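Appendix B, example 12.
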Amino acid sequence: MCARCSEELHDRGGAIARKHKTVSIDEKPKQYGFCREHNRERISFFCDTCKETLCVDCKMYGSHSGGKLADHRLSKIEEAFKQAELEAKKIDPELDKRKAEIRIKLKDVSEKI
């Protein structure tokens, strides 16, 4: 937020607002949303088998609390997010091949126009 807004909201906002600590956007803790099943609970886990996000209630009382689902490996959502970021950055030869094919077709179409 800009300096003017910060001053208006924090410096003049009363005793409680003055105690707030402002941090850069990079330092802000990530929030991964709310559970689809338990809409008041924040997502805490990722089921590596089902490829689903879960909250604590899902593991304690819900879908992943009993039966075969209870044995599924869960990752902390932060770890799963970091892993997904790494996977997304990997070079995909099949995708690169498809992009090259599309570029050739686009060039052919452009030449015909």
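The longest helix spans residues 93-112. Residues 49 and 72 are 6 Å apart (CA to CA).
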